[in-house]
Every structure is written in C-alpha cells, then in structure tokens.
Amino acid sequence: MSEAFRLVQAPPARGGEPSRPARRIRADRESMEEDLLKLVLTLVELLRQLIERQALRRVDAGDLTDEQEEELGATLMALHEALSDLCAEHGYTLDDLNLDLGPLGPLLPRAD
C-alpha cells in the first residue's frame, strides 16, 4: 500500500524556479450569478437525462402500464421544453450546459 502512495506523490519542484501564485478568481456579481444559473441548469439537464434513461429501462422491462408510460413521456417532454425555454431566455443552448471534465470527457452525452 505504501508503494501506491509513493507513486502518486507530487513531483519535486523544479530547481531554482519560484512557484507560480495561484490563479485568482474574478468574483463580480454578474458573472457569479450567470455561472450559478448555468450550473443549476446543467444539473437539471443531467437529472432529466438520468430520469429519462431510467424510464426507458422500466418501459423495456415492462414495469409500467400504458397509462404510466404516456404520463411519464409527457412529463419528460414538458421538462425538456421548460429547460430549453429557460436556456433560451438566458442566452444558452442545451449544448452550452455540457461541462468538460478533462480526462473523463464531457459530463453529458452528446445528443443524437
């Protein structure tokens, strides 16, 4: 176990070079509100997609009645439309909500 931790230690500082200061965050009110709004919309879209996938699994498994399937489909479509309207109202598209997670790739799967 100690060998594993030894492998993930930070590399030694470069000889003679001063360390760079941490990047400062600009915290003006307008950009913070927009960033927070975008984050909330992103989380709502992520949850919508997760609920949609779960609903499709339940439909494929035959766990829902025809009425439940219709109601679930209508609810998911209404949520998608409401989210699209909110995005448009604030100048975003649904593609703008996708976060880049670096080596993990994008947060949301690409829409087909």
Q: Span between N and C termini?
A: 44 Å
Number of strands: 0
In this structure, how is the largest beta sheet organized?
A: none
Count of alpha/pi helices: 3
- Average of pLDDT: 79
* Uncertain spans: none
Radius of gyration: 22 Å
Return the string of H and E elements. Answer: HHH
The percent range for strand residues is under 5%
What multimeric state do the chains show?
single chain
Helix content: 55-70%
Q: Which overall shape is indicated by the principal axes computed on the Cα atoms?
A: elongated
Determine the structural class based on helices, strands and strand pairing: mainly alpha
List the helices and strands and how they pair.
Elements (H helix, E strand, L loop, with lengths): L1 H6 L21 H33 L4 H24 L23
Helix pairs in contact: 2-3
What would you say this structure looks like, in words?
The chain has helices at residues 2-7, 29-61, 66-89. It is elongated, with a radius of gyration of 22 Å. It is mostly helical and 112 residues long.
Question: What's the gist of this structure?
Answer:
With 112 residues, the chain is an all-alpha fold.
Summary keywords:
single chain; 112 residues; mainly alpha; 56% helix; 0% strand; elongated
